[in-house]
Amino acid sequence: MGHGHGHGTASGGGQHAGKLWVAFGIGAVFMVVEFVVGFATSSLALISDAAHMLTDVLGVGMALAAILVAGRVKAGRNRTFGFYRAEVLAALANAVLLFGVAGYVVYEAVGRFQEPPQVPGWPVLIAASLGLVANLVSFSVLREGAKDSINVKGAYLEVLADLIGSVGVLISALVTITTGWKYADPIMGVLIGVWVLPRTYGLAKNALHILFQHAPERLDVTEMQKALAELPGVAEAHDLHVWTLTSGMEVASAHLATSEEADHEGVLKAAQALLATKYHIEHATLQVEGGSSAQRCRELSW
């Protein structure tokens, strides 16, 4: 009976942390500006955008905290995987925040359709312009990191949603200035609230996919099990499990039952090479076993 494993690496926490600090600082400053102007002018569109920026600040803050926790708190006797899942939990929390804010804005806007307040356009236009610049900077800072970290992707999606929201506020302010139409502001508030929901759903779905330890969507587990079973010396592959620990860290474990004449060390190396080259899984724990051990595995209830 033999065991083998490779090594995985977490997505670049230190590299992402600096970018998140920048986005956090920018978002916090302009969130305050938008809230102050939004309440002073009764602009639901600007309040909506400021609320999204609040989720940006909270989301980026949680993402930053998750990276710091995952990087500094190492695995221990009872924490064999450390705190790598912290960033996945942060991404899920971000999604819940966005759902809540979007629902609140839609609810508030519906009430305003009956008696829309007069919103002064110029202060809203100036505040929205400043918010747009802030979001463009944060967007560019987080864009690369979002490709390899679900945690940074959560913060990135919030900034993206708020960037679109800032554009929407600019449009409603321009309509208010040029036409005086009172409904432009609440209508834009609703559109901003609704626009973010599908993207929030996707983020929540990805986070739950990882937390439930489902196999990565890019992989066909049945095909992988068949490929392992077809390796020289392998009679059967079973108890195959593939899951994602956190972004960039995919893990696998499997039992490989061998024929009597098989070289266990050779089977182990061949299986590790197959998983690494064909499926890009570097961290795999493989148990190579004879006939009696395989029979024992089949008797287990789960």
Automatic annotation (TrEMBL):
Keywords, ordered alphabetically: Ion transport, Membrane, Transmembrane, Transmembrane helix, Transport
Keyword flag Ion transport: yes
Primary location group: membrane
Origin superkingdom: Bacteria
InterPro entries: Cation_efflux, Cation_efflux_CTD, Cation_efflux_CTD_sf, Cation_efflux_TM, Cation_efflux_TMD_sf, CDF/SLC30A
Transmembrane segments: 20-47, 53-71, 83-107, 119-142, 154-177, 183-201
Pfam families in the cross-refs: Cation_efflux, ZT_dimer
NCBIfam families assigned to the protein according to its UniProt record, in alphabetical order: CDF
Protein name: Cation transporter
Protein species of origin: Lentzea aerocolonigenes
